[in-house]
Amino acid sequence: MEVKRKIMEAEMQMKDPNHQLLEDLMVATFSQRRKDIVGDQPHITELISRWPALFHERQIRAEFTRIVTTDLLQSFLDGLDGLVLRLLEVYKAATKSEKKQPLKDILDCLAKDDTNERRRVAALLGLPRYISGEDPSTVIRMCDAHADILDDAMKGMQVGLLIACEGSELGAIPHEVFDVAVVVEETIVLHNIKDVTLGFAMLMGVIYCINLKYPNDMKYSFEFLQRVVMKIRPDQASARVHGLRNKILRYKL
Fold first, then answer.
1. Helices assigned H by DSSP within the chain
2. Tally of structural domains, the chain
3. 8 A C-beta contact, residue 64 and residue 56
4. pTM reported for the whole predicted model
5. Same domain for 160 and 232?
6. Same domain, 50 and 85
7. Is 201 inside a domain boundary?
8. pLDDT band at 99 (very low <50, low <70, confident <90, very high)
9. Are the C-beta atoms of 143 and 232 separated by less than 8 Å?
10. pLDDT in tens, 156-170
11. How many Cα atoms sit within 13 Å of 10 on the Cβ side?
């Protein structure tokens, strides 16, 4: 196992690595990698150093399938698309109360530019704003793509998404996304993600692949994505998420 890991580590230093070789080695070293990750719980910098091939979109998807035996993107996107309209209607009903101004700001952005992709983003960004008591500010952050403030933007982020946008005016929904990055322990582990929805999916993948706990500030939102959107062990949903799922599914469009 260690010989294969070192071959893979050396291959990742090549300018043009052999992806089929990496795929075969990732499969062959899966059990050792899970032992390292789950048993030793290394810091993210050590994990990137030992298993650099893991931190690529293709391998995150493959590793997720090895762990959960389901396709990461298909389960996330199909599940989300089946709930988007219901989620947005539930959000609209909630904004009748003045306590949900951040949620109203998201829906106002959507009203100005209503596309399928922006509906997805509104549903995802609105989830912690809808769930009482959740604060997404330590998990989901936006910054100017051309400003040299990455360290400041990631400060305090244990796990989350950094959304780099074009222009200095950052709305409740980003209008022009330059890059989306997955952050773990104030370190970018995956970037060059093309949109926010894919970023959320890859964040779920990273959480599974390196055995992270959901951040406390958005634990119910992530549980909702896992149990309701992706339908991973839905029978194990907490009472709060179970109630939210029933409310959304009962909502008539």
1. 2-11, 19-28, 30-34, 44-50, 57-68, 72-81, 84-94, 101-112, 116-130, 150-154, 196-209, 219-224, 239-250
2. 2
3. no
4. 0.94
5. yes
6. no
7. yes
8. confident
9. no
10. 999 999 999 886 667
11. 6
Confidence of residue 67 (pLDDT cuts 50, 70, 90): very high
Residue 99 and residue 170 in one domain: yes
- Closest listed residue to residue 200, CA positions, set 128, 124, 131: 124
Give domain status of residue 67, yes or no.
no
Torsion sign across C-alpha atoms 64, 65, 70, 72: positive
Gap between the Cα atoms of 150 and 188, Å rounded: 10
**Could you give phi then psi for residue 27, rounded to 5 degrees?**
-65, -45
Query: Same structural domain for residues 18 and 121?
Result: no
3-state secondary structure of 134: coil
For 218, other C-beta atoms within 10 Å of its C-beta total: 23
The number of beta carbons lying within 10 Å of the beta carbon of residue 225 is 24
User: 169: domain range?
Assistant: 76-250
Based on the fold, state whether residues 50 and 156 are members of the same structural domain: no
Residues 104 and 12 in one domain: no
Q: Give the pLDDT confidence of 1-32 residue by residue, as tens digits.
A: 999 999 999 999 999 999 999 999 999 999 99
Q: What is the predicted pLDDT for the residue at 41? A: 93
Query: Residues 49, 87: one domain?
Result: no
Instruction: Mark whether 220 and 100 lie in a shared domain.
Output: yes
Task: Collect contacts of 37-42 with beta carbons under 8 A, ≥24 apart.
Answer: 37/209, 37/210, 37/211, 38/211, 41/211
Using CA atoms, how far apart are residues 63 and 209, in angstroms rounded to an integer? 6
Q: Which of 229, 215, 141 is nearest to 181 (CA)?
A: 141
Taking alpha carbons only, the member of 69, 63, 106, 71 closest to residue 88 is 106
Cα distance between residue 115 and residue 119, in whole Å: 6
What residue type is 72 in one-letter code? L
Measure the CA–CA gap between 126 and 134, rounded to whole angstroms.
Answer: 11
